[in-house]
Design brief:
17 strands; single chain; rod-shaped; Beta-Lactamase; 5 domains
Length: about 575
Amino acid sequence: MKKLPFSLRQKILISYLSAVLILMTVIYPLASFMVQQTVLKLLKERSSELIERIRHESNDYALVQRLKDQRALIFFRVSLITNERKLLYDSYTKRLLGPKFNQQTAVHPEVEQAFEEGTGFYEDDSKLLGQRFVYHAEAFEFQDKTYVLRTAFPFKFVSDLTHNVEFNLIALSSVALLLFSLMTWIILNRLTMPIQRIITTIKPYQDGRIQTLPRIATDASAYEDVQTLADTLNLLSTKIQSNIDILTQERNETSTVLESLVEGVIAIDQHQIVTYANQMALNLLGISREALFGKPSHLIHNDTCLQLLINCQQTHKILTETVEIRRQDQKFFLDVIAIPKANDSGAVLVMEDKSTHYKLLNMRKDFIANASHELKTPITIIRGFAETLHDHPDLPAETCAKITNKILQNCKRMSSLVKDLLVLTDIENIPHSRLIECDLHEVVQKCCLVLQDLYPGSFITINKIPEHEMFITGDPSLLEMAVMNLLENAAKYSHPPAKITVSLDHVEQRIQLKIADKGIGIPENDLEQIFHRFYTVNKAHSRKLGGSGLGLSIVETVVEKHGGDVSVASKLGEGSTFTISLPRI
């Protein structure tokens, strides 16, 4: 059963009224008893006074006469009983019976009680008078004998008096209750109004309708205690709001730090529910915040990560693991650390994307293998020819000349390979101080002139070059190396005479350089790997032309170091077009 929502003052008022009603309920039954006691007391007092006035007479006759003279003190009925239990006098019985009256033995309970105890009290119906009486009997000494004075009072008068008292009591109590209720309500209303105002002020904050605790204002009529309460609440509100602001600021700072991390962070509680996930974690897992936050951790969709979290919570130890994730035909490598929270409140999962690291390791491994292979081939050839000369010193001069020429060619190839490797290393470690403002138009024209000298039969067409200068921030020597590499490849891999088209243009905030040829082209399957180190489409043809397989890799590295990108479009048998895009000043 739902409790009624009584206010404080209503509860106090109801409590007071309940107490008053209980008191009235207790007092009301006492009214009859109080009236009876009052009548009995009056009977006793009048009886004692009558006795004092008549007890000094000399004989029974004088005693009765003296009693008759005391009409002012006589009740409705009065009787005298001698020590022999004889009725000496009865004010009503003798008058009603007349000659029939006799001094019969008076046998009444109150009389017997008076002879034994001194006083007696009894209620009884009188057959003679036809009504109920309240009787009081009191013994006294007369002429060394014990007499009893018996008085009677009509019960109807007692009943009427009781009803009057009860009615007056009810009327008085009702008026008192009404006045008391009104006064209590006024007093309580005045006492609780400031408190009610405080409650009304802070109620919107309790209901969540406002975000800050409002200041409590009190008027000059407020009691000192209420003013103290309001001041205390205002001080408490200020401290709470200050703490909330500090916690909010710390939370925002923590959130900003976590969101700016390159590591993914996921937090779960003791029930395996995700309580936090930064954007990097969502990106690594390929899931939205709404699909993960506040949901069970099994939605991470990675058994290794999930098991790592469970083991971390069970063992209370920091656990690490390398996880491989495949998504959209891509493979990612994550170094995952599971850290238990204090007091068994959950765990935190930190994920670091090591895909680039593992890719570099594989590239380094491939590079070492390829470099070793590329160096091993000319060394083997040189060694073979050297052993031939050593074992056959009498070879004809013409044969020796051919062998020596082969050795020289392979030495040049090794020198070119080592030179390109050193160039790659130099490019990867280029300091920022080497980058200066330079004109790309001038670099391209210079490279075209050099190529014209190297390949006199080539036709180089330069078009779409704006008249104004095209400045970028870069290293002129490295840019010349990259452009020269592309121009030489265009000439080498074209049927003579080579036809090369060079264009230079502004595209939004970048400068775009295109070098197109009408050469042999590149197969479509090789386009994705054309910039890999030591990769050649036709190894025999490349070796014949003295290529090391590092030229395009050098071009890509130079362009990336300058904040640009390089791409290729080619069709086998029709030629290739290399495009370099660099940010302009």
